[in-house]
Design goal:
With about 260 residues, this protein is α/β, with parallel strands linked by helices. It has one domain. The chain has eleven helices and nine strands. It has a five-stranded mixed sheet with strand order 3-4-6-5-8. Strands 1-2 form a two-stranded parallel ribbon. Strands 7-9 form a two-stranded parallel ribbon. Strand 5 and strand 6 form a beta hairpin. The chain is globular.
């Protein structure tokens, strides 16, 4: 990983062939992460690992497969998110992938509502390349999130973070403004949209059946635009100069087609 302040990276992978065989084909994309001495690979189900480890983390990311795949819905339950929350260090961050393609409004709302039930201060970020929503990343912290765009702008120009800036540039983010223009809403914004959402619990796994109705459906643009209709610019989320915040406000508006 190019981030210079990283001390330890734990990768949890259930299929041993992925790190041992597949990862070698994506060395450039994954920054040769398996040969980084800071990397520790655990061969286990991610949920099993988080429920049994005594470790705590600054960042926990979850990028599972679609929840209609057998077993995957258990990585979208309230109980799983509560376990993740219990393993965050103070100020820690959790992110969760949410697909909009091959899904339905009911499934997406269940995924978001369940996450926000545990992380009510959560925020929503979109893959809005080419002006449309394809999938989302939910970001949660115990306390309200604050993002210092001025500090991050300085890091973009800091030689210590040059590799990080290059890595972000490879996927189209050449500044903190372009990175955070992916903002798509807060938990408070979308609550009216989520009033009929089913909370996904270990004892019902309702999401697995809701998600199954989305197989081979491509309604991502409609789901995304409906969700965005509830989104408002977050006045307290970003910290920085008036000029930076105004630039970001305009970039978010353009990205959302407003």
């Amino acid at each position: 990983m190019p981030y210079p302040d990283l001390q330890r990276l734990t990768i949890c992978e259930i299929e041993p062939l992925i790190p041992q065989v597949v990862a070698r084909y994506f060395v450039r994309e994954n920054n040769d992460v398996l040969n980084d001495p800071r990397t520790h690979v655990v061969y286990d189900d991610a949920r099993s690992f988080i429920l049994t480890t005594h470790d705590k983390f600054d960042v926990i990311t979850s990028d599972p497969i679609h929840p209609w795949v057998k077993g995957a819905a258990s990585l979208y339950t309230k109980e799983y998110f509560e376990a993740v929350k219990a393993h965050l260090n103070s100020g820690g961050v959790v992110t969760q992938w949410v697909p909009l393609y091959e899904s339905t409004p009911e499934a997406v709302k269940s995924e978001i509502a369940t996450f926000l039930d545990v992380f009510p201060n959560g925020t929503i970020w979109a893959n809005n390349i080419n002006g449309g929503g394809y999938d989302l990343v939910l970001l949660g912290q115990v306390q309200p999130t604050r993002i210092d765009i001025g500090a991050l702008a300085s890091r973009f120009g800091d030689p210590r973070y040059a590799a990080v800036a290059r890595s972000l540039g490879d996927v189209g983010f050449d500044s903190p403004i372009s990175l955070f223009s992916t903002y798509a809403g807060t938990g408070a914004d979308v609550q009216p949209w989520l009033t009929d959402a089913a909370i996904n619990r270990d004892r019902n796994l309702r999401l697995q059946y809701l998600a199954g109705m989305g197989l081979n459906l491509y309604q991502s643009a409609t789901i995304y635009s409906t969700m965005l209709s509830y989104s408002r610019y977050p006045e307290t989320l970003f910290v920085g100069s008036d000029a930076l915040k105004q630039s970001l406000r305009e970039a978010i508006r353009r990205a959302q087609g407003r």
